[in-house]
Amino acid sequence: MDNSRIYLSIGVQSGFEKEYISKALEDNRITSGGPNVDNFESELQGYLGENLFVAALNSGTSAIHLALILLGVKKDDEVICQTMTFSASANPILYQGAIPVFVDSEKETWNICPENLEIAIKDRIKKGKKPKAIIAVHLYGMPYKVDEIHAIADKYEIPIVEDSAEALGSCYKGKKCGSFGAIGILSFNGNKIITTSSGGALISNSKEIKDKAIFYATQSKDKAVHYQHSEIGYNYRMSNICAGIGIGQMKILKNNIGSRRNNHLFYKELFGKIQNVEFFDNLNEDYFSNYWLNTILLESEEQRENLRIAFDNANIESRPLWKPMHLQPFFEKYPYYGSNIAEELFKKGLCLPSGSNLKNEDKIRIKEVVELLF
Ligand SMILES: *Cc1c(COP(=O)(O)O)cnc(C)c1O
Known about the structure:
With 374 residues, the protein is of the alpha/beta class. The protein has helices spanning 17-26, 35-48, 60-70, 91-95, 114-126, 146-155, 207-217, 240-250, 253-272, 301-313, 341-348, 360-373; strands spanning 53-57, 78-82, 99-103, 133-137, 160-163, 171-172, 175-176, 183-187, 200-204, 278-279, 287-288, 294-297, 319-320, 336-337, 349-352. α1 runs antiparallel to α8 (240-250), α2 (35-48) runs parallel beside α8 (240-250) and α10 (301-313) packs across α12. InterPro entries: DegT/StrS_aminotransferase (IPR000653), PyrdxlP-dep_Trfase (IPR015424), PyrdxlP-dep_Trfase_major (IPR015421), PyrdxlP-dep_Trfase_small (IPR015422).
């Protein structure tokens, strides 16, 4: 039997990527921005909702950074961020010289907890500063509690940056993730559900915001014949070559979501039979996850490590859940609101191989490891 490495999540190709890259090369459009970029943006707009405006950028991280800039986040401002996330959600707060304030997860979607969010907002206001923005994340593709979180944000008039890096194709009440925030962001990094090798996008419902994002992303050039700048600029635009990959990838987005959801059904059946494993599933029919990654909770950290090592010995990649930001050496000095929900998830949780190209043979190998251990 083939014993090659089974990965957590790697890209698959539609075969059309080459066509769009070749066209860019033939036309000598080896540029940042360009026709592939415009077309990729239109396709994303068509997919997410025609009333939206999408700016294609060179990473999800730069999209979050520009989102904060567009929302007016400046030095010493405070920005609330879900603690249970990947560091790229929080780093751009520091790029602005602002202060991250971390909030715990709730147990049902593992995303930002409404109660603790409101406690945090009230306490920060009491201490003298109203947070400038809230970064909420659809972690592993699972939508956060959109209605509850947005109701609180609206009540205190704080805009939400919706980190949808892992959730392209996920929906809440039938509406696509990425479309809920004052600004939404996507990532097309190599491990995401579609990839442009590196890339990201900023989503808003205003053409003005899109245009301003592109202005900042292309060095903030004023209208003049010479290079004239009245604002700080960034080199964050997507390359025309990468966008060619993106157009090719859009052709298999639906298939990828289908494959990931099939992986989900496979794991649901496999772990459904095992008593001491809790399988992470949609909360109810309002939630539609793309199941970018499938995840489980074991009874203890020790059990989690036993399974992870057993997988590794069989050349199968798995990984503990993302370590919460408030526990990271680099971020632990910043304020945190909550108890130990995210911490417990981190201790007991494991991400399972969930690639769009997971084959039947791979599933047999995964099943063997699990059945041997439990
Ligand atoms: C991948 C990811 C990002 C960053 O995207 P890049 O394109 O890698 O810069 C941000 N937030 C989350 C939750 C992610 O998983």
